[in-house]
Structure formats: C-alpha cells, structure tokens
Amino acid sequence: MIMVTIAVIPAFNEADRIAPVIAKTKKYVDQVIVIDDHSRDATAVVAARAGALTVRLVTNMGAGFATRTGCDIALARGATRIVTIDADGQHDPAQIPRLISALERQGVDIVYGSRPQRPPMPLIKRVTNRWGSFIISRMFGTTIQDTQTGFHVFTARCYPKLRWRSCRYGMVSEFVMRTGINRLKYAEVEIPTIYTDKVAGMSLKDGAKALLKMVWWRMRE
Amino acid sequence: MRALHIVAIAFAVVMLLLTVRNYLKNRKLATLLFWGVVWIGAIIATLLFDTLKAYTEVINVRVFDFIVVLAFLLLFAVLYRLYGKLEQLGGKMEEMVQATALRDAGIKSPARRKKR
C-alpha cells in the first residue's frame, strides 16, 4: 500500500513565520495543506508562495475548525497518514520522521509529539499543562503527558473516530478524549520545545473553558 | 390610573406598532401573532389591573407579583428559544464555511458527490 503523508497547518496571522515552517515540513511529507483561518495579514499569500495547498476560510472559525477542515481535505486527497503541526514555528518539522517512525514501529493509531514539561516552556504553561494533562488523563483513561500539544501524526483510518467537534483550542483536549474513549492505540515522542515571545497558543481562559468541556464530555460519554 | 400604568401601556403600544411594522416588512405571521398576543395581553392586564386583583387574591398573590412572574417565565422561554436558534445558526455557519473551503480545495462535497 502506498503511504501518502499530508501535513495540515492551521494558521492565523502567521505571515512572518509560516514560510520556513512550510519549507521545512515539505521535506518530510508528500503535501502540505495550510488552512488560513481568515487572517488579517498575508498568511494565505505567503503560504501559497511557499508551495502549500492553501485554503482561506471565509471567516475566522478557530484553530480546531481549521485543523479539522485541513484533515478532511487531506483525507479527500488520499492521505494515509496525517500530520498536524503549528504554523508559529513552535514545532520543529524535522521531528516528523521520528513521529512517523514511532507510528509504524509501534503499530499505533496516533503519535503525540510531547513537549518536555521544563524550561524553556514558560512556568505558567508548565503548571497548567501538568494539571490539565493529569485531570484529562484520569478522566479518559489515557497516560498522555502533554495533552495540549498540537503536533500529532495519525493514520487516516482512525480519523473518523478522532474527528473532533471543537472549533477552537478545545480541539487538542477533545483529541485526547476521543483517543481514550475510542481506545485508540497511541504513543508519545518527546520533541524539543521551541518558545519565542510571540508564540501563540491557549490562553488561561481557553484552558479553563477546555477543562469545563472535558467534564461535560466525561458526563456525556 | 397611576403613572406606572401609563408608562407600561405606552411601552406596550410602541412595541405593538413595531411588531406590526416588522410584519409588514417580513410577512412573518407567526411572529406577529405571538408578539401581538404578548403586547395586547400586557395592555389588557394593565387596564384591568384592579379587576385582576380579585383573581390573584384567590391564590394569595399580588397582581404585580403575578405579572412579574409571568413576564420572567416568558423571558426565559424566549431566551431558551434564542439559545437554540443560535446553536442552530452556528452549526449552519460551520457547514457553509466547511463546504466553501472544500470547494476552494477542489473537493466535491459529499452531497454533491451523491447526486451523481
């Protein structure tokens, strides 16, 4: 079976950072899809110039929606493996082969690129990640250390069971929830943490909202 | 008639006129009927305030309290309906944005694929 690996990069206002991410990612995958979440800058133009299949959403819908749309497109284009990676340079695309290798060697459905919970990760993120990961893991029977990572590789086969409903940052938590509830096989690979002053991501408010959603999902499922 | 009654009737009359004006614009009969009943009911309740006393005293409640409770119930019912509508609209918006994105990527939507 021919393996087709497609990377999905959701992007919002990343015109000055996305080009090198696409250039590096292209080396390790068959295609890069960028979903521009209705950025106010030239993200879509830069991404298209960098060689990514770029789709600009007609209105801002959130990282979760953009990623989901990208994965739907990747599946329709024949992906057998999907990589999700952030557009702000927080994830090193050079780690993609390690994640793919873990996916194949261990025969799992998903590999999480886990950031080590120590500096240079900011203290507030370390604390919230640790607590968030602990609570989520207990709720859904997983032992994933970094539940808030946006760096994943998963098989197209398991995507229908993973396909999240969250439109915003709650997506990463729902990802873990669906991994646990559907008893999908997963592995974690430690990746280097790259933090700059401008790294986007979940705010405390987003984190609190995601946690409340987790409790709700636990009650429903 | 107290000043409060006059203000209440004036408010209800203005709202009734707005309801009729909206109906003439949108021709939504259900909306006209629903809100028409609400505003006319408010006018009648205010005009017959003292008459209503006889009925509310049976259940040991003041007329004003009775009207306020009714108004709150109506408010919550309308709020709940609005909440449902908002959720529905959000879902439709997601579908629309998704379909546009797929079309821009050259992917036919499942509905379109089925038609063939």
The number of distinct helices of chain B, counting runs of at least 4 residues, comes to 5
Mean pLDDT of chain A: 89
Shape of chain A: globular
The spatial strand order of the largest sheet of chain A comes to: 3-2-1-4-6-5-7
Describe the global form of chain B.
elongated
Low-confidence stretches of chain A: none
The helix-strand sequence of chain A is: EHEHEHEHEHEHHEH
Poorly predicted runs of 5 or more residues of chain B: 112-116
User: Approximately how much beta-strand content do the residues of chain B carry?
Assistant: under 5%
DSSP strand count of chain B: 0
State the secondary-structure class of chain B. mainly alpha
Summarize the topology.
The complex is a heterodimer of chains A (221) and B (116).
Chain A: E1 5-11, H1 18-26, E2 31-36, H2 43-49, E3 53-56, H3 63-76, E4 81-84, H4 96-105, E5 110-114, H5 123-140, E6 152-155, H6 159-162, H7 170-181, E7 186-190, H8 204-220
Parallel strand pairs in A: 1-2, 1-4, 2-3, 5-7
Antiparallel strand pairs in A: 4-6, 5-6
Chain B: H1 3-26, H2 29-47, H3 49-56, H4 63-104, H5 110-115
Helix pairs in contact in B: 1-2
